[in-house]
Amino acid sequence: MFHESSQALELCLSRSPPWEAVRGLPSAPKEGSKGQTVNMAAREQQRQHRPRNFRPRRDIFNEYDDTEFKKRYRVDRAGLLFITDLVQRVIGNRTERSRAVTAELKVALTLRYLATGKMQQCNADDFGVSRATVSRIITQTVDALVTQENMRRFMGFPLNRGEQQRMKAEFAEIAGFPGVVGAVDGTHVRIVAPHEHEEVYVNRKNYHSINVQVLFDAQYKLRDMVARWPGSTHDSRILRESGLWDIFEQNLAGPGCYILGDSGYPSKRWLLTPYPRPQEGHQAAYNSAHKRTRSVVERGIGQLKRRFHVLHGEIRLEPRKACRVIMACGILHNICKLRNIELDEEDDIGDEPAGDEGFQPEDGRPAAVHEGALFREHIARQHFRVAA
Q1: Measured between alpha carbons, how far is residue 1 from residues 4, 5, 15, 79, 255 in Å?
Q2: DSSP 3-state percent helix, strand, coil across the chain (nearest 5)
Q3: 169 three-state secondary structure
Q4: Quick one: DSSP state of residue 199?
Q5: pLDDT tens string 189-232
Q6: Measuring CA to CA, how many Å separate 105 from each of 92, 132, 227?
Q7: Residues 267/367, Cβ–Cβ less than 8 Å
Q8: pLDDT 10s digits, 88-100
Q9: Does this model's pTM top 0.85?
């Protein structure tokens, strides 16, 4: 193999010297020939700085009306400027030399990618930058957005008792289920097959994904989001390894606060799941109210994925970057909720089940599961008793 490669290299070198192969210059003239001066001038001319050709950029703030602007970027003009203020310190340019891309345009480009899931769409649309620049800008902007500060500001689970009471009241209006402060589920976001540990990203439906834990309140606002586990990971394990588990296991959420989960989760005093085989009466009534109330999380996932189509398709990034893109979508979703930037058509069909409902939870400690089942029976008898 080495002998053949050496022969090929010798053949290339025998045809033309390496600098001629790179620069595409004619064969070097013999010393003293009449063309020597001409070729030296040609080389010198190639070494000179060539003027850069800048692609034109549209004025997106003035070109689109309000409806089209929100359709393309998922926020209104004021919302885009609000997001820019959050990341300006990191992505802003200190100079305008070489027509540097402004912070506003970087945010718009990133939002366009998240809205469509297609980097090439960003090239062709409004931005007048190369594909390599698009990729670099998206990474920079997403990293600037997904910070602990922004996650605490826009997505933290509330420990304030007044806010918890408000959340309980909003959930109770759905089907009369008492004490609920959130509905939890997992949803799979498809990714391209990773180069490393590819097999652990294959989920139950046989495609590569990140299994994302989400907790929604009754207003479809994200109260917790975990996007770091490969698709083969069970929902119950993700919850058990999350900060949300610690909050409730350590009683930091306060008494009388419950989360609703499907049958893929273990029953706990704070995590209420449906009866697997409900009997007529209070158990059936409990299950009915549980299903109607827990549908918030399915509908919330539907809104999140519909707002940011990058979560609907295949994220063609390595897992670490894909997880940060998912987290960015969660923060931006809550910013839209905070600023009352609604979708044009509210999603009423919800999200497809994550795939773990109906399977035995990984948390198989008999005592803990039995205690949770007993507490579920207590809640059902106390609040969903059916009159004879």
Answers
A1: 5, 6, 22, 60, 73
A2: 55, 10, 35
A3: helix
A4: G
A5: 999 999 999 999 999 999 999 999 999 999 999 999 999 999 99
A6: 10, 16, 27
A7: no
A8: 999 987 666 656 7
A9: no
